[in-house]
């Protein structure tokens, strides 16, 4: 259950940071980098946690 919550949180943060990067042109590169990292971590956690839920 913890892996699912972490996965959902990482994916949500990644999307939120991507949306913020569109509004703030000055910090956009940093926000886009962290958005990609959060999305990648979320997808990895999803891949790790999926076999445990089957």
Describe the structure.
This protein is mainly alpha-helical and 54 residues long. It has helices at 2-23, 28-53. α1 (2-23) runs antiparallel to α2. It is built from two helices and no strands. Helices cover 89% and strands 0% of the residues. The mean pLDDT is 91.
Short description:
This protein has 54 residues and is mostly helical. It has helices spanning 2-23, 28-53. Helix content is 89%, strand content 0%.
Percent helix, as a range, is over 70%
**Envelope shape:** elongated
Mean pLDDT: 91
Radius of gyration: 13 Å
Keywords: Membrane, Transmembrane, Transmembrane helix
Transmembrane segments: 34-53
Question: Which descriptors apply to this entry?
Answer:
transmembrane, membrane, transmembrane helix
Please write out the topology.
Layout: H1 2-23, H2 28-53
Helix pairs in contact: 1-2
């Amino acid at each position: 259950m913890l892996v699912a919550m972490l996965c959902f949180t990482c994916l949500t943060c990644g999307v939120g940071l991507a949306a913020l990067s569109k509004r703030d042109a000055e910090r956009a590169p940093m926000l886009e980098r962290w958005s990609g990292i959060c999305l990648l971590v979320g997808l990895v956690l999803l891949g790790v946690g999926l076999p445990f839920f089957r």
